[in-house]
Amino acid sequence: MAPTLYGHVLHSDFPFERLRDGAAPRGRVEVRHVSGTASRPAGAAAVTVDDRFTVHRSGDVLTVWCGATGTFELDPSSARVDAATSGQDGPELEHRLACVVVPLLLAERGDLALHASAVAVDGQAVAFAGVSGRGKSTIAWALGTAGRAVLAEDGCIVTPTPEGPLLWPGLAGVRLRGPASERMVVEDAGAGADPVPLRAVVLLGPRGGSSPAIGRLSPVEALTAVMPHTMHAQGPSLAAAFRGAGALTRTVPVLRGSLPDDLSGASRHAERLLDMVLAGTG
């Protein structure tokens, strides 16, 4: 048993408080602290995702800059991340490494990385993908506090098998914004580190209405809709993401879903949405 992330044993120079203990059949990922300035990459090969992120590719090596946490050099061949941080080594850095940097590294190695939360239901996983503010973390928190096993809060890895896709758990617990804009970690029902067969993917749309809503997508619609929720750095990892998303949407139901904009009823709405998903994919 070892501290694991997405089925890999994680060796890190930085503290990780939310790793899961379990077997690590997929190998090792190393995160090293290196000296240097957390500088933003520039040049024609640098792609700015938004004001917070820039990704630069040089051969097989990626450089990921995040204004809030630092600069990360990703070497897929050795499954290693070298991090020059901007002074933070607490929960924000852990979240950035585990939910963005390591998924990008694994995407370079051929995995399908989803910007999604996930819970386990009767030995199967349901993933909830969406942009920030659509309710991924809220759903994970609500279902976790109701006794569901939370597999991921903001990022998960999916790999194919002959029997269907498997979802590999991310960090344990759920990290929510609390009073005074502080982040707090909410424990869940205690999912393990083992992969879980993926039952369904829900793509969360804008909040609205008075009750949760879902609608099932055709496989062709699903592939187009899933791709914006994959994590990759263009180039070879874009092709791998497309292959992975194609395999997923051929074998796993994909639904559009939404939550009401009613935080006081978040737990009730999350349970209702999950019930609708299970009924629609039974």
Brief account:
The protein is built from five helices and 20 strands. The chain is α+β, with helices and mostly antiparallel strands.
Topology at a glance:
Elements: E1 2-5, E2 8-12, E3 20-22, E4 28-33, E5 46-50, E6 53-58, E7 61-66, E8 70-75, E9 80-85, H1 91-108, E10 112-114, E11 116-121, E12 124-129, H2 136-145, E13 149-152, E14 156-159, E15 166-168, E16 174-177, E17 183-186, E18 196-204, E19 213-216, H3 219-226, H4 235-251, E20 254-258, H5 266-280
Parallel strand pairs: 2-4, 4-9, 12-18, 18-20
Antiparallel strand pairs: 1-2, 1-3, 5-6, 6-7, 7-8, 8-9, 10-14, 11-12, 11-13, 14-15, 15-18, 16-17, 19-20
Distance between the termini: 34 Å
Percent range of helical residues: 10-25%
Shape: globular
Instruction: Kindly report the CATH topology of the largest domain.
Output: Rossmann fold
The side-by-side strand order for the widest beta sheet comes to: 3-1-2-4-9-8-7-6-5
Number of domains: 2
Largest sheet: 9 strands, mixed
The proportion of strand residues reads 35-45%
Q: What is the architecture of the largest domain at the second tier of CATH?
A: 3-Layer(aba) Sandwich
Task: List SSEs in N-to-C order.
Answer: EEEEEEEEEHEEEHEEEEEEEHHEH
Count of DSSP strands: 20
Runs in which pLDDT lies below 50 for 5 or more consecutive residues are: none
Q: What's the CATH class label of the largest domain?
A: Alpha Beta
Rg is 18 Å
**Structural class, judged by helices and strands?**
alpha+beta
Mean pLDDT: 88
Task: Tally the helices.
Answer: 5
